[in-house]
Amino acid sequence: MNFNDYIRNIPDFPKEGILFKDITPLLKDKDAFHAVIDKMADKFKAKKIDYVVGIEARGFIVGTPIAYRLNRGFIPVRKPGKLPYDKISASYDLEYGSSELEIHSDAINKGDKILLVDDLLATGGTTKASIDLIEKLGGDIVGIVFLLELLDLEGREHLKGYDVYSILKH
Ligand code: AMP
Predict the structure, then answer these.
(1) 1 lines ligand 1 (CB under 6 A)
(2) For residue 155, what are the domain limits?
(3) pTM, two decimal places
(4) Is 69 a catalytic residue?
């Protein structure tokens, strides 16, 4: 199965110059969805992991089934104003715009082993902000997994020293 067949390229979305990678055809196909989640999870199944952290919103879609497959709990990193309890935040630049991310202050304890998940690695700003949040709480990131990595944007440059794995490279 070639997962690339299930990724749709949308030019100039959400603004001019951005080639948006639409993963909804992959999510819709039960066999492709199942296979890609298994591949993402299985890469890290030999590692000691306490929690899977997923980044809103598509990081929830791929992160929660990975947590379920690894039989671990799931922790959300969310956009501002969504988390109801005590939280910490980090700001970051996007390929299109800038934003902030938040995590509950008690979500992670010192030394917890974390697998960080998102759908796509572009500039790496989103991932870096999430790393900052996790590490501020004392979490130990044992792996970072993406469905798709945009090679030209060199997001990996921001993730040196981490075990980064992406299924597709565009
Ligand atoms: P970045 O912080 O630049 O690595 O951007 C990564 C985040 O933005 C991910 O959560 C993606 O969902 C989203 N994103 C950035 N660029 C694209 C793109 N070209 N197509 C689809 N999603 C994107």
Answers:
(1) no
(2) 47-169
(3) 0.97
(4) no
